[in-house]
Amino acid sequence: MSSRSQTTSIPASGPIARVEFLKSAGGCQGAATVLVVDDEPKLLEVRRLMLEALGYVALVAECGEKALEIMRTRMVDAVILDYLMPGMDGEATARGIRALNLATPIILSTACLSVPDRVLRLVTAFVPKGMTPSCLIEVLKEELQRAHGGTTQYSGD
After folding, report:
1. How many CA atoms lie within 13 A of 81 on its CB side?
2. What is the arithmetic mean of pLDDT over 8-33?
3. Rounded to the nearest 5°, which phi and psi values hold at 61?
4. What is the DSSP secondary structure assignment for residue 11, as one 8-state letter?
5. Which CATH number covers residue 133?
6. Burial of 39 (0-12, 13-18, 19+ CB in 10 A)
7. By C-alpha distance, which of 105, 122, 58, 111 is closest to 83?
8. Whose CB has fewer CB within 10 Å in the chain, the N or C terminal residue?
9. What strands lie across the sheet with 57-61, from one edge to the other?
10. Is residue 85 part of a domain?
11. Is pTM, for the whole model, over 0.90?
């Protein structure tokens, strides 16, 4: 029986219960670790809950400095990064990540309408914040598969 079919009979309701159920059903084995970097606390929480409900290990950072600290101490499979943040912005954060690990996929997710080409060259994908969460997840899956040689182990399924 796949973990997808097991999620149809969740014993309790709500995203936290679903995450716990997925963990107990083995849905998080081999899950990709995704770092979400954004200065908006509510968006960080929503994205964390969404990623965990889908079986990912989600880490959050409210600023670029904290993101780099996490990147230095944890194994991170992908980063979802905001561009406009106070202090260390998305460009400086992406440059810092690239200095640590060139292979980490970075998905830029921003409401900024004009992102310089020099920033787009640092990231592997761009998803505007106005797009649906499913669009962001599809891009995340594609980037993880590309980074891991086309395997689906890290797809969050």
Report:
1. 34
2. 48
3. -140, 130
4. S
5. 3.40.50.2300
6. middle
7. 111
8. N
9. 57-61, 33-37, 78-81, 106-108, 125-126
10. yes
11. no
